[in-house]
Amino acid sequence: MLQDMQEPIEQAGVGVPDNFQRLWTPHRMAYIRGENKPTGSGPGDGCPFCEIPKMSDEDGLILARGSTVFAVLNLYPYNSGHLMICPYRHIADYVELNEAETAEIADFTKRAIQALRKASGAQGFNVGLNLGQVAGAGIAAHLHQHIVPRWGGDTNFMPIVGHTRVLPQLLRETRELVAEAWPS
């Protein structure tokens, strides 16, 4: 329960009370620690994008499956509905895609945008690839394209000051809504 910001909250043993409310996000520690990251660059080195298609759609947070690619929610999203399009084939570079994979990634990108607009009323999108670790790829060994829905005013002080993202919906609920809205 939030208290008046003028009254410091007493927290025995945790330091000097101040006027800040705390929003604890312990689930982010898995990302910070690099849990479930591949141990190497091969498909047998614990690549989550190779393991996810073996799971049920619900357990793997899969939105749609194609013949060469699949769409999956990001486990560490920037915004609700942040998803990725991944080829089934374990490749790292965009130029390694064959024509069928390239075409299906483009098609799935269009479908993802349509589904996110329908499910959440997204007003804009960031769509992109981070090729290589130095370009920001968290898992550089397996190509994946990000699609991040955006809304006017969706940024606030939390990511800047608190290094925390506030998401209004659980991933399973988001998966259900976007999967239901996915065009056939």
From TrEMBL:
The keyword Transferase applies. The keyword Transcription regulation does not apply. CDD domains: FHIT. It comes from the Bacteria. GO terms for molecular function: nucleotide binding; nucleotidyltransferase activity. InterPro entries: AP-4-A_phosphorylase, FHIT, HIT-like, HIT-like_sf. Pfam families: HIT. Gene3D superfamilies: HIT-like (3.30.428.10). The active site is at residue 144. Substrate binds at residues 74, 146. Residues 48-157 form the HIT domain. Keywords: Nucleotide-binding, Nucleotidyltransferase, Transferase. A motif (Histidine triad motif) lies at residues 142-146. This is ATP adenylyltransferase. It comes from Thermopolyspora flexuosa.
